[in-house]
Write a structure and sequence with these properties.
One of its GO terms (cellular component) is cytoplasm. It contains 3 helices and 5 strands, in the order H-H-E-E-H-E-E-E. Helix content is 45%, strand content 27%. It has a single domain, classed as Beta-Lactamase.
Length: 101
């Protein structure tokens, strides 16, 4: 998993730098196979909460809704805006990237 993640980050280095420079509070990269945090800029407790609630419950529900509407479709990106923060979530096969702005 780490090699795949490193390859994706290397290929998209300019995009990652741009995302992290634009009012970003932090990020979480989670390993979908182990359901664990692979990389984060938050403390462990905050990262686990984002992983459990946002990536665990909300993303899987949204993926299910998209598949129910059109079985040939796939959730590629999700943006959730709250009063305080904005969550940008990109679920992939092996990992999920969540950015908090």
């Amino acid at each position: 998993m780490n090699r795949i993640l490193e390859k994706v980050i290397h290929q998209n280095g300019t995009i990652v730098d741009r995302i992290l420079s634009e009012h970003t509070i932090g990020y979480v990269v989670s390993d979908n196979m182990a359901n664990a945090v692979a990389e984060t800029s938050f403390d462990n407790t905050s990262a686990q909460a984002i992983l459990k609630h946002l990536n665990g419950l909300l993303v899987s529900t949204c993926q299910s809704v998209v598949r129910d509407i059109d079985p040939s479709n796939k959730l590629c990106f999700m943006r959730l805006a709250t009063r305080k923060f904005e969550y940008l979530v990109a679920p992939e096969e092996y990992f999920t990237i969540t950015v908090v702005q």
